[in-house]
């Protein structure tokens, strides 16, 4: 679960800067990347 973050997204519109909140919630993130051969990749995908 990701926490809510206040005023982290910056947008520019008509010469003005506006910030919006990130609501947080759930999601996915990459923990570790590894290089594998095709056979190993197929096995890991199962």
Radius of gyration: 19 Å
> Which word captures the global form?
elongated
Low-confidence parts lasting 5 or more residues at pLDDT below 50? none
How many strands, what sense, and barrel or not for the largest sheet?
Answer: 2 strands, antiparallel
Number of domains: 1
Terminal Cα span: 26 Å
- Given the helix and strand composition, which structural class is it? alpha+beta
Our estimate of the beta-strand percent is 25-35%
Strand order of the largest sheet: 1-2
Helix content range: 10-25%
Mean pLDDT over the full residue set = 90
Give me the strand/helix succession: EEH
Q: What's the tally of helices?
A: 1
Number of beta-strand segments: 2
Structure, briefly:
This protein has 1 helix and 2 strands. The protein is α+β, with helices and mostly antiparallel strands. Strands 1-2 form a two-stranded antiparallel sheet.
Kindly describe this structure:
By secondary structure, the protein is of the alpha+beta class. The protein has one domain (5-45). It has one helix spanning 38-45; strands at residues 5-13, 16-22. A hairpin with a 2-residue loop joins strand 1 (5-13) and strand 2 (16-22).
């Amino acid at each position: 679960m990701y926490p809510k973050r206040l005023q982290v997204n910056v947008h520019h519109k008509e010469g003005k800067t506006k910030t919006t909140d990130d609501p947080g919630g759930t999601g996915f993130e990459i923990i570790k990347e590894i290089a594998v051969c095709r056979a190993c990749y197929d096995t890991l995908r199962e």
